[in-house]
Amino acid sequence: MTLATGMERYAEYHADKYRELASEGELKDANLNKARLYFQSEERTRTLRNQRSGMLNKGQLVSAYTGNQHVFKRDRTKKVLKNTRVQLMIDCSGSMCGDKVVYAAHTALQIIRLCSIMNVDTEAIGFSSKGSSAVHYLYKVFGKRLKRPEDFLKGFWRSMPYALNQNHDGDSILFGRRRLLKEGKQYRKIMFVLSDGMPACSRRGDSYAFAEKVIDMIEREPYIEIYGIGMMDRCVEALYSKCMVVEHIQNLEEQLLGFFKKVVYN
After folding, report:
1. What is the pLDDT, as a whole number, of residue 2?
2. Dihedral sign, CA of 151, 110, 236, 38?
3. Can you tell me the distance from the alpha carbon of 166 to that of 129, in angstroms, rounded to the nearest whole number?
4. What pLDDT digit, counting tens, does each position of 157-196 carry?
5. pLDDT for 203
6. Collapsed DSSP state (helix, strand, coil) of residue 50
7. Is 89:127 a contact under the CB 8 Å cutoff?
8. What SS3 class is residue 76?
9. Are 247 and 213 in contact (CB under 8 A)?
């Protein structure tokens, strides 16, 4: 058996495990109707009264006659996540093998599905290593729609034979940052990093300290919002000031909706 064949079979093991858990009902799709109704309610039109400009409020005619200038009303529709780009950086290193990478694939899929109902464009990138260098897998890029959100999984499992090595978190986050910054100033830019939170690679210097430095830099910048999503591991809490931890995949729907509410109104 060649090394490549062995890695392909190892990757197929994870894909089979995903399909098995999905068929057994362990990997449930989020109830998008619940999310849709929630965000639609947040986007309803509100009438602002007692304004100094807009349409005259007929109920305030007497007040206007006495000199009150706040007799107008305006309709305002609040847009949730308007002009937003969401990027997923997915740790595909060896420490993620087993349940972690299966749960990461499912979590990423649910985020892509959730964003699709809000007409938010997404990008999904896996990261691992080849030798001493970081490598990246573009599963979905901005501006190109998937026929189905589930099509993301095809590319994800195809990349596994070449992944499951080291994880250059700091270098990979910088790679994602460069791509996000190209999206233009008119967009709100959000990066989710799905990882077990343990940077480990053969780059020169302390890879964990470098990742800390990169994350801290982005959190201080006004350009990108960065969030860690821990996959069955709480290490992300030491790296990201804003994060969530997926410990039980059965609670993912409730966790994601609650997390997105915090992100939307950040």
Report:
1. 46
2. positive
3. 5
4. 888 766 667 777 899 999 999 999 999 889 999 999 999 8
5. 58
6. strand
7. yes
8. strand
9. no
- What pTM was computed for the model? 0.81
3-class DSSP state of 143: coil
How would you class 86 by CB atoms within 10 Å of its CB: exposed for 0-12, middle for 13-18, buried for 19 or more?
A: buried
Residues in CB range of 255: below 8 A, 6 or more apart: 244, 246
> Is 103:232 a contact under the CB 8 Å cutoff?
yes
**How far lies 239's CA from each of 34, 83, 111, 173, 242, in Å?**
31, 28, 21, 13, 9
Instruction: Say which residues have a Cβ less than 8 Å from residue 76's Cβ, sequence separation at least 6.
Output: 45, 46, 47, 48
Distances (CA, A) of 116 to 110, 150, 250: 10, 12, 22
How far apart are the C-alpha atoms of 178 and 228, rounded to whole Å?
A: 18
Which residues lie closer than 8 Å to 216 by C-beta, 6 or more apart? none
pLDDT in tens, 74-113: 544 455 667 899 999 999 887 887 888 899 999 999 999 8
Q: Which residue has the higher pLDDT, 236 or 88?
A: 88
Which residue(s) pair with 231 in the sheet?
246
**pLDDT value of position 26:** 80
Burial of 122 (0-12, 13-18, 19+ CB in 10 A): buried
Angle subtended at Cα 35 by Cα 244 and Cα 195, rounded to the nearest 5 degrees: 25
Distance of CA 56 to the CA centre of its chain: 43
Tens digits of residue pLDDT in 50-77: 545 555 555 555 454 555 555 455 544 4
What is the number of residues in the chain? Answer: 266
